[in-house]
Amino acid sequence: MIEQTVIFCGGLGTRLLPLTKKVPKPMVLVDGKPFLYYLILQSKENGIKNFLILCGYKHESIKKYFGDGRKFGVKIKYHYNDPKIETLKRLLDARYLLKESFLLLYCDNYSSLNLHNLTNQKNYTKDKILITLCEKKNGNIELDYKKKIVKKYLFKKKPNSIYVEIGYMILNKNILPKRNNYKNVSFKYFINDFIKKKKVIFYINDTGYLSISDNKRLKITRQFFKKKIVLLDRDGVINYKNPIHYYVRSLEELKINNNFIKKYYKFLKKRKIICITNQAGISTGDLTEKNLSLINKKIILEYKKNKLNIIDFFISKHHFLSPHIDRKPGHGLFLKASKKHKFILDRSIYIGDDLRDIEVSYRAKVKCLYLGKKVINNKLKDKYKFTLINKII
Q1: Are 232 and 274 in contact (CB under 8 A)?
Q2: What is the CATH number of the domain that holds 195?
Q3: CA gap 141, 106 in Å, rounded
Q4: Pair 71, 186 in one domain
Q5: Domain that holds residue 76
Q6: pLDDT in tens, 48-62
Q7: pLDDT, tens digit, for every residue of 264-281?
Q8: What is the spatial distance between Cα 384 and Cα 377, in angstroms, rounded to a whole number?
Q9: Beta strand 210-211 with 109-110: parallel, antiparallel or unpaired?
Q10: Three-state SS for 345?
């Protein structure tokens, strides 16, 4: 069980000048709120309510905004070091405030998170470090795929490395040295020492990441956070399923689910809508490409009549026996939708009526409002505890 989120917030943020003349990097505004707010909210939504902020430069503004965390429904403690102190010493000096196991974040990176999915690594033990990686052209990590461990930490990024370490690490307090025998160095030196011991495992987050580390990246991150998207399944949500044939094969068989529109209208009206759907009828021959196009165009028109905006369809036409990542419960179409329309997956909701819709939400790290009738057993309820939501506002 992860008891705490620890966030490095002490640096000078020089690459964000002139913004960081007045505020520290984690307090730079993104869609009207400090970037740090979204990291705290993300952890809270994943069941973590205890926070330790390792602060330094202009730390007073962080404390003034967040206080003890009460108004955000969490508990926040702070530890201060001079801004010149590097990240490893910051963590070791605050050892007495650490819980037994914790999630360690950088204050300038954001990546979609499902904590159950992250911690559910078969080769993770409490004497190891679990680090999160994302793809990048010039990375800083080399992997041993057979042993499923990190082989090398590159202190200078290289083009032949395709992964970068982004934070979102899981650590146990007991692996930290009892005495601080390290010089004033970055935390990556500690990671590298554990790599030499073959005790660093990895989790590849294919949803990518955002950063506010410089002004160019900040601009991109602001664009992503501004987007308000809702993802909808088609058959069973947007329209009723064909009671005789599994697939809706023609316009005559299409019946819009107006009860769904009526119930969730206020929520849908405030967002752009993307439909993600399996249509295996194309592969089985039950549905033609022409009719599929006509059906989806009709759906768009019916939603427009209600002043609702469906901006895109992402459709898997693979056979229902296909294991393709684009066919639900594979989450490939979610990744494509996020990349094309520039929105954040774990800040979005998918509404579906099938158990596969919950599983694909889990893999894509989106929240899921499940409208189906099949009962979810206790084992799945535990798995999906950070995926399923009961209502939308």
Answers
A1: yes
A2: 3.90.550.10
A3: 17
A4: yes
A5: 4-225
A6: 999 999 999 999 999
A7: 999 999 999 999 999 999
A8: 11
A9: antiparallel
A10: helix
